[in-house]
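Q: What would this complex look like in 3D?
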Amino acid sequence: MHSLEAIMVATTLIGFLGVVLRRNFLMKIISLDVMSTGVISFYVAIASQTGNSPPIVTAMAVSYAHPVPQAVIVTAIVIGFATLTLSLTYTMLVVKKTSTLDSRRVEERVNW
Amino acid sequence: MVRIYVLFNLVLIVSSMLAFLNKFKKSIPLAAGFVNLVVANVIYWSQLSGEAVLWNSFGVKLILDNISRDFLLMNSIVFLASTIVAVKKEKPSVFFFLLALFLPSCNLMFLSCDMFNIYVLLELTTLVVFLLASFGGKTNQVWSALKYMVLGTAGMNLYLLGVGMIFARSRTFELPTLVDVIPAVLVISGLLVKAGVFLFSMWLPDLHSSVESELSALLSGVGIKTAVYAILRFSPSLGKTVDVVVLFGVVSAIAGVVFALNERNYKRILAYHTLSQVGFVLSAPAVGSFYALAHGVFKSWLFLNAEELPVKDSKKLSREKLPFLVWLAVVLPCLTICGLPFTIGATAKHMVFSQLTSWQKIFMYGAAVGTVISFSKFLFLRPTFKMMRPVNPLVHILLGFYCFFPPLVLSVKGTEVFKSLIVLGVGALIYFILKNRTKPLPRRLENLEDSLTIYVLLIAVCFLVVIVRG
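A: Here is my prediction, written as structure tokens for the whole assembly.
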């Protein structure tokens, strides 16, 4: 595995650790976003394994980037965005009712 | 064939927009559900099959085969039954739009046969489920939906990472032939979170018991099956890693039953049983699809029965007397899930057990007996011969029809009938011994913090299992 990809995988794992370790629920959601950013960058890194020129036939280019990972990962970006906005909106609702962001305390107040 | 079916689903998606018109909001999901039931039955009984590969596009593929057919039939039955109950309630049109959108997105999910389609459609169904579940707006519903979202999204990101690694090697999204250890574990641990497996998806009891009955039926019957379907699709190509799935399937089957035994709230009992039943499906991935179909039918029936019961607490319920028809509607699905001969449950159990190795068989028989013990709480309810119609007679007829439909139930042979009767008898006996000694187990595992910590540990366990077995 190339170093660039390794860095992206590390970013994803750091995001995952953030989700697990941060008790603040807002921070969990932000960490999720870090995680998905890591995954998206990982796909972009994969695409550049075959070369760096854009995948359009030109006389100058020697090797082309793989178009498919970039094309499909756009979907993941959109899905990540939808997930982020939805969970932030509903977090607002929960915070309004429980007046805390600490996920343990939210749990206690929801299930009292 | 597949193309026509995809077109049909696109029509369903477009027509779901019509639900925004106040005039059509209830008739659209009902009509879609009914038409889809007819289509799914035609596909199932005439064994239609087919394949559609996107031209020159790196393995992107839709497939219609026996696994898909089981799941499609399940989706159509459960959706129609839940919709019949849902349209009786007054809800804004957005709700019915989401409901109508749920059907085609699950249909398409059950066709997809490549790694990326599976990802996109899983996320689509997750978003729809999230919106439907949090629609009630009660804090506990919203919070359990958020838990589902956080855990599910984290899992799906890991899945996507695994898929990226597989793609980097093979340059295609086709389901791979043999996968390395790291991507395989990432993919599987990502999918298990959404599939409703004990320890992985502890968001499930909270979510499925807090939402309204018709949504519980939909989520338990179809919602989690999207991820189960993905695992079944992946399982032939995983090689040794499939042992992880089987192992956690067996663990889930038993642990779910233990928690359900000790629980007293009707819907929570059912939610724990969902965990246990998914364990049955995953313990034999090769034939799991039929069990998924059976589970969808009887579990949605059980959940929809929550509308009929006067009280939800099993202790108080045992003192009540139910009118005969209601009693029948409550007891029949309980018998089906316990595996009474000549029901869809018995056929499904027989198919799963025929695939198990001997050590798994011991544990799974334990889980089967546990299921009977747990449901004995409802099997021994007392009827009165007062003639009172159930609230939703149509639902009982529809679901009962598929529970006892002869072509689905008559494949079980002599000794198997005997075995399932023994399981029933032993379970009922143990129930009377244990009767007043159970109390609800702690719910610590269901906290978000704890389930996330456990999730990290479980991924490590998956790696260990694969390395030891490999």
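A: To summarize the key features: The mean pLDDT of chain B is 89. The interface with chain A takes residues 57-58, 116, 119-120, 123-124, 127, 130-131, 134, 137, 139-140, 142-143, 145-146, 149-150, 153-154, 157-158, 160-161, 164, 167-168, 171, 173, 443, 447-449, 452-453, 455-456 of chain B (CB under 8 Å).
Q: Very helpful, thank you.
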